[in-house]
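Standup notes, structure subgroup. Blocker cleared on the flavin mononucleotide input:
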Amino acid sequence: MLIIVLRFHVFRLNKLLMIENFQQLQIKRRSIRKYTPELLSSDETKLILEAALLSPTSKNKHSWDFIAVEDKQILKALSLCKPHSATFIADAAMAVVIAANPLLSNACVEDASIAAINMQMQAEELGIGSCWVQVRNRNYSETITAGEYINDLLNIPMPLEVVCIISFGKKENERTPADLHNLKWEKVHIGKYKFEPENGDNTE
Ligand SMILES: Cc1cc2nc3c(=O)[nH]c(=O)nc-3n(C[C@H](O)[C@H](O)[C@H](O)COP(=O)(O)O)c2cc1C
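Run returned:
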């Protein structure tokens, strides 16, 4: 009984203090590609980078490096790493380039991806917008990959491979939160994989 009462009070306190639980945070997080000119505070930047460094890695190998960029000219150059879907990096307050080291781990892409989403969730908790920009398997030009372009720009040595860039900035606008009633539950299979009919009609 005491535990129930305590839980209720913690819940109300969280509500009063506007502290979000993890699911509320997930619902609120959307990709933000429009930023105000406001910079991030050093505390905010530190928390975001700590989220990356706190991330779990395969065999605890820490097979990543993070390059935090705030310089406007370099942000602009990063925004040109591929022809589409990266232009907004130029207006970000900060971008973190995540490079994976395949010599340290054959799960380095997974390690890098987990660090990326952890940074995005930490940013969301701070009310900071973010967006993932895919670099791995993307091209700068017909002969140069996006990764090669960035390695050259930021002096990233071999064998590091850039997986993605996460852009950060204060949100110009909030976006519509995700809808819990619209989740793709058909992607969840209980016990065994179950093929669904094409039209989604699963009545028997
Ligand atoms: C692996 C991955 C790659 C992505 N690459 C890009 C990208 O290059 N440019 C971009 O604008 N958004 C990119 N996104 C963001 C997605 O477009 C976005 O997460 C998706 O449309 C869902 O929208 P939401 O994040 O607002 O929920 C990427 C997201 C993921 C997870």
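Discussed briefly. The CA atoms of residues 61 and 104 lie 6 Å apart.
Next: hand off to the docking folks.
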